[in-house]
Structure prediction request, 333 residues.
Amino acid sequence: MGVFDQKDFLGCCGSTKFAKEMVLSGPFSNYQQAVEAARDIWFNKVDVNGWLEAFAAHPKIGESPSHSQKTKSSSSAQWSEGEQSTALASATDSSFQELIEWNARYLQKFGIVFLIFASGRTTLEILAEMKKRYVNRPIVELEIAAQEQMKITELRLSKLFSLQKDASSEAKTDNATDIVNKAGDRISVIGGHLTSEASTGKPSQATTRTRPPITTHVLDVAQGSPAAGIEVQLEIWEGNEPPSAFTQSHTGHWILQGTSMTDKDGRSGQLISMVDNLNAGIYCISFNTGKYNPAGFFPYVSIVFEVRESQKLEHFHVPLLLSPFSFSTYRGS
Prediction:
């Protein structure tokens, strides 16, 4: 049961009206119920002034939260820094300076900070999107910013529920230290494609990663070249039971981890934080193939795979070989 106060929701979205309405709508039995309420409140009950208040709670891309932003919500300020970590880590001196200049141009034209779901996006990706949106009319950009805010809110709600779940687990451990949790093997969704070195019984050794733990690239087989400009998103499943078969009904839900766009080499930007130990679980990587090729057969392609406890230190590369009427994938290295 998700029981949160106004301050918690203010960290997810900087609109006071939004936070108050979420408290009135709660408590929520699960994350998905909270997201549905949040969408209704944000788009149907919060007015433009509330939107602007939420936008103002965000620092400019590449900048640290101000003192007033930290005072309003320390969790929001902390999450903002984490969500921008990929952009900051990928910035060069020249790209960072260009980002500062475009931040100023955008703010001068629209009167709001440039808002984007920054998690997993590089500086160059964010710059490209900012330049693309700069030509929009203010009313159009306001609507886009509101959509991006909703994506950020959903991500932060998932973090809020995760924090509560972790706290609950710790409390149960303290009260019942004699209980030993036995983790059984879960059914692999596409295990045949994701056979790993860990299954041979070799012990995993801790390493410092030089690339994100989950990566992808897309090849356009029809063109014989990399597929640039395809939107990619990565999600992880949360639920008591894994979605082991499409014929079963499920009580869980997918939680967004990050989004990106394939570059000229067909490779996506960072979709997930650079961590040594990847969270075990079932992941879904989706490609907006319909937007890339409207005449193709697939409006989108989703690949579901499992990361087991024994595979947390490994690298998962999930490429997509795409043609207008077929696609294939395999476990890469």
About this structure: Confidence is low (pLDDT under 50) at residues 172-207. Residues 6-64+73-168 form a domain with the UraD-like fold (CATH 1.10.3330.10). The beta strands are 214-215, 218-220, 225-226, 231-238, 253-261, 281-287, 301-307, 316-317, 320-323, 326-329.
